[in-house]
């Protein structure tokens, strides 16, 4: 099974913390959608033996598109690829785009999963992040969306400057009040060249507090688990049968094709990515070229990636798989490197599978990097 990710590089405005590729000008929207459709057609040969299980519209803000434009791209996928009978088709959306009319149109389309970028239910948080929607719009969109869609995920951001634990818990409780089956939650991070980085550098905003973010993470994990959610990946919590099939495929190392500017692809051996420049992307596609770079993954690259993704999930890192796929040297190395973290209670071994413990959960990326192999090949 494989997945197709379609990057829609448009947003109404730039969030202060975001470093994803997007444009706030919709002037080239028609040319961009035409190019995305052409890229799907050009690359169908890559998936000629594959069956598409998931289609994911990410961005940017895909919900700025008209539903007819989304439908046309879905049709293009069906016209050029083999698709399972009931694929998971996700649309990332912002609350301000989800009007009653838009939700009705989406409900009538093939979109069957919404990922809604709420981030916070508090007005001053939204203003600090420069989000395009208001707290009222967040509540209203969820009220109407849950009446039409069963499979909904929302994004929440924790570790906001000076956010009291009680206030963070209020955000979680508000989310739970809508009976949403999936929540993705990320710590606010400072990316270079963003407005947030500039505010902190100028002293207009306090530096982020990692200890506070860690407290927020454990509050989130404990509260969601009380409600029957499973933290199947460090940042993702789902009720049974509501895990994101698209994201799970990434973490389990399945093939996926990224369409659109800046989108990444993985075919099991190579990783590639399209140019993060809208005019260059459109121009190349129009003349039948694919504006991408490719990286052939070494055995060490593949090992490191498996360790990183595996430790972040409930499926862990299989030592038997390390031994059979990567060889004795990698097996002995990870056994040796993991001993310290096991003794500190940060990871545990169950049936030859390394799993991060509750204590180590927030530190997963650091633990993984300690298990990485420095290039041998």
Key phrases:
3-stranded antiparallel β-sheet, alpha/beta, 377 residues, 14 helices
Question: How would you concisely characterize the structure shown here?
Answer:
With 377 residues, the protein is α/β, with parallel strands linked by helices. The chain is 41% helix and 22% strand.
The proportion of residues forming helix, as a percent range, comes to 40-55%
The structure class reads alpha/beta
Poorly predicted residue ranges? none
- Number of separate strands: 15
Radius of gyration: 21 Å
Largest sheet: 9 strands, mixed
Average pLDDT rating:
93
Q: Compute the number of helices.
A: 14
Explain what you see.
The protein is α/β, with parallel strands linked by helices and 377 residues long. The protein contains 14 helices and 15 strands. It has a 9-stranded mixed sheet, with helices on both faces. A 3-stranded antiparallel sheet has the order 10-11-12, with no helix packed on it. The protein has a 3-stranded antiparallel sheet with strand order 13-15-14. The longest helix is centred in the middle third of the chain and has 17 residues, at 210-226. The radius of gyration is 21 Å and the shape is globular. It starts with a strand and ends in a 6-residue tail after the last helix.
Which helices and strands occur, and which strands form pairs?
Layout: E1 2-8, H1 29-42, E2 51-59, H2 67-80, E3 82-93, H3 100-108, E4 113-119, H4 123-129, H5 135-148, E5 152-158, H6 165-176, E6 182-187, H7 195-201, H8 210-226, E7 230-233, E8 236-238, H9 245-251, E9 256-259, E10 264-266, E11 270-274, H10 278-286, E12 292-296, H11 299-311, E13 317-318, H12 319-326, H13 328-343, E14 347-350, E15 353-356, H14 364-371
Parallel strand pairs: 1-2, 1-9, 2-3, 3-4, 4-5, 5-6
Antiparallel strand pairs: 6-8, 7-8, 10-11, 11-12, 13-15, 14-15
Helix pairs in contact: 1-2, 1-10, 3-5, 6-8, 11-14, 12-13
């Amino acid at each position: 099974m494989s997945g197709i990710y379609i990057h829609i590089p448009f947003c109404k405005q730039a969030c202060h913390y975001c470093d994803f590729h997007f444009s706030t000008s919709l002037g080239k929207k028609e040319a961009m959608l035409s190019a995305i459709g052409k890229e799907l057609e050009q690359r169908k040969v890559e998936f000629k033996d594959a069956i598409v299980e998931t289609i994911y519209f990410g961005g940017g803000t895909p919900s700025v598109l008209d539903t007819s434009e989304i439908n046309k791209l879905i049709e293009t996928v069906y016209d050029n690829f083999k698709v399972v009978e009931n694929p998971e088709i996700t649309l990332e959306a912002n609350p301000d785009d989800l009007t009653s009319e838009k939700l009705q149109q989406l409900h009538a389309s093939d979109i069957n999963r919404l990922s809604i970028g709420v981030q916070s239910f508090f007005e001053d948080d939204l203003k600090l992040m420069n989000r395009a929607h208001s707290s009222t719009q967040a509540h209203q969109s969820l009220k109407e969306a849950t009446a039409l869609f069963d499979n909904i995920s929302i994004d929440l951001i924790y570790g906001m400057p000076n956010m009291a634990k009680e206030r963070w818990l209020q955000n979680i409780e508000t989310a739970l009040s809508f009976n949403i089956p999936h929540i993705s939650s990320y710590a606010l991070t400072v990316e270079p060249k963003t407005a947030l980085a500039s505010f902190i550098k100028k002293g207009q905003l306090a530096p982020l507090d990692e200890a506070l973010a860690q407290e927020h993470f454990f509050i989130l994990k404990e509260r969601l688990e009380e409600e029957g959610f499973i933290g199947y990946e460090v940042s993702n919590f789902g009720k049974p049968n509501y895990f994101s099939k698209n994201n799970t495929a990434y973490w389990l190392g399945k093939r996926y094709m990224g369409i659109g500017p800046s989108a990444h692809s993985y075919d099991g051996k190579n990783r590639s990515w399209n140019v993060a420049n809208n005019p260059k992307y459109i121009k190349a596609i129009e003349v039948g070229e694919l504006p991408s770079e490719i990286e052939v993954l070494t055995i060490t690259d593949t090992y490191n990636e498996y360790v990183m993704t595996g430790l972040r999930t409930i499926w862990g890192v299989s030592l038997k798989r390390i031994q059979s796929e990567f060889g004795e040297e990698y097996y002995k190395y990870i056994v040796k490197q993991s001993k310290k973290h096991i003794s500190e209670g940060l990871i545990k071994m169950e049936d030859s599978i390394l799993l991060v413990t509750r204590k180590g959960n927030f530190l997963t990326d650091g633990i993984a990097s300690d298990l990485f192999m420095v290039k041998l090949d």
